[in-house]
Specification:
mainly beta; 316 residues; single chain; 3-stranded antiparallel β-sheet; 19 strands
């Protein structure tokens, strides 16, 4: 039996994002002022977000009850160790739901970066990168570090700063000033202050996970991974119009009940991207990446979010 390749197709209208470049500073709804820096065609905040209100003025829920963090589908914020002194040093920690709240976590004209935004930043820093094997972490880290070989004023034990490492020190080539604010875990622990910087994207990975970027004190790269949406991470905003509609996010399920001529297959629409998925289903063929216009078969399986399965028949 010839190998079959399966992919899912979800259809909706998408609108382009207009990016406006500038440099200087920006102010959030609470009056906090942040430096901004332009890297390639993107403009980023030069410090971690510390806002306590959405753009429409509603408060972002400040929560210290860990049970609420474990279960809430609402946006939450806190400080590392629930200590407000860490706000000035490393900004706030937010769960993922706060980053995609329709009231707007970032100031007007700014938004939470998508996974594609982070990838564009990485591509600009290192067009020849190989996944997590890249120099972006070194080039984005703040120079503030214990025992930094760069000397004064970067060699410091005072927070905010990175933990000591003999040769993985930050050079901050773009004034991104990445600082290790740590994270609030699902195990009711605050970890990695001084060691790891975790930054949310607005892009879901599954219905429970979302994509994030990680920079660590002992690695050169900026890594990409998915984390539970209830975890508390730092946020950096990017200039641009809010993406009301993005590409839908869909995962392919592993085919099962395979016979010589049939198989069960399906997928899971984990995000509609702010629009409506009007059709979902499968296309297949004997060559990789079949499409609706060039395939050996296609099958529609309803619409909207959620999991769907269908039987494919008449295979060779």
């Amino acid at each position: 039996m010839a190998k079959k390749y399966f992919c899912l197709v979800a259809m909706l209208l998408c609108f382009p994002v207009i990016m406006v470049n500038a440099q200087g500073s920006m102010t959030d709804i609470d009056g906090n002022v942040y430096p901004t820096i332009t890297i390639g065609e993107q403009e980023w905040m030069g410090k971690n977000l510390r806002v306590s209100h959405y753009t429409n003025g509603d408060p972002i829920l400040h929560e210290e009850n860990h049970t609420v963090w474990q279960t809430s589908q609402e946006g939450l914020r806190t400080w590392y160790n629930h200590d407000p002194a860490n706000e000035d040093l490393y900004g706030m920690l937010y769960n993922w739901h706060a980053t995609v709240d329709e009231r707007g976590l970032c100031p007007a004209g700014w938004r939470t970066p998508t996974d594609a935004d982070w990838q564009q930043l990485l591509e600009f820093i290192d067009p020849n990168h190989r996944g997590n094997n890249n120099p972006a972490g070194t080039k984005l880290k703040s120079r503030r570090q214990q025992n930094s070989p760069l000397g004064a004023p970067w060699d410091t034990h005072e927070h905010p700063r990175w933990d000591s490492h003999g040769y993985r020190y930050g050079t901050d080539d773009f004034d991104f000033n990445a600082l290790p604010g740590g994270n609030y875990t699902m195990g009711n622990a605050f970890v990695s202050k001084g060691q790891h910087a975790y930054f949310w994207s607005s892009t879901p990975a599954t219905h429970k996970h979302a994509w994030a970027r990680i920079i660590t004190f002992n690695m050169a790269g900026m890594n990409r991974s998915q984390y539970l949406q209830q975890i508390g991470f730092s946020v950096r905003c990017i200039r641009g119009e809010v993406q009301q509609v993005q590409h839908p996010q869909v995962n392919t399920l592993i085919p099962y009940e395979v016979t010589s001529t049939t198989t069960m297959a399906g997928g899971e629409v984990i995000s509609e991207g702010g629009g409506a998925v009007t059709a979902r289903g499968l296309v297949w063929g004997q060559n990789p990446n079949p499409s609706l216009s060039q395939n050996e078969g296609q099958l529609q399986a309803g619409s909207g979010p959620g999991t769907f399965t269908a039987q494919i028949t008449e295979l060779e």
